[in-house]
Structure formats: structure tokens, C-alpha cells
Amino acid sequence: MPTFRATLCPACRCVRRTRLVGTATINGHLHELVQCPDTACELVWAVRPTTPQLAAA
């Protein structure tokens, strides 16, 4: 079952209910890889797990 998180998409510039697609270690720090659900965007980017979630619109 996929996990979701409300995050600001840097490409769409709006709050999206992004899907967690994996994890990555960058400079020794754990990051979550999230994907924008918009079919025109589908950007995948890294966010820190300690970053607070936003209220999904």
C-alpha cells in the first residue's frame, strides 16, 4: 500500500498529496523520495523526513 504525504511540488508550485517512492542517503542524511501525482508533472524529488507535512488542499 503506497504511503502519501502532503508536500509543496517545486514544479507545480502548489501543495500536492505526493506518493513516497523510496529513500535516499545524501551526505549521510536520510531523505524520502516523493512523486507528484499530476500526470503532466510526475516530478520525483527528495525531502527530509523531518520536514513538516503541509495541509493538503
Helix % is under 10%
So how many helices? 0
The helix/strand order is EEEE
Describe the strand arrangement of the main beta sheet, using strand numbers: 1-2-3-4
Mean pLDDT: 89
**Portion in beta strands:** over 45%
Structural class comes to mainly beta
Total number of beta strands:
4
Overall, the morphology is globular
Low-confidence stretches: none
Short description:
The chain has about 55 residues and is an all-beta fold. Helix content is about 0%, strand content about 55%. The protein has a 4-stranded antiparallel beta sheet, with no helix packed on it.
Care to describe what's here?
The chain is mostly beta strands. The chain has one domain (4-47). Strand 1 and strand 2 form a beta hairpin. The N and C termini lie far apart (22 Å). The radius of gyration is 11 Å and the shape is globular. It has strands spanning 4-9, 14-26, 29-35, 44-47.
Write the layout of secondary structure elements.
Elements lengths: L3 E6 L4 E13 L2 E7 L8 E4 L10
Antiparallel strand pairs: 1-2, 2-3, 3-4
Throw out a few tags for this protein.
about 55 residues, mainly beta, 4-stranded antiparallel sheet, 4 strands, about 55% strand
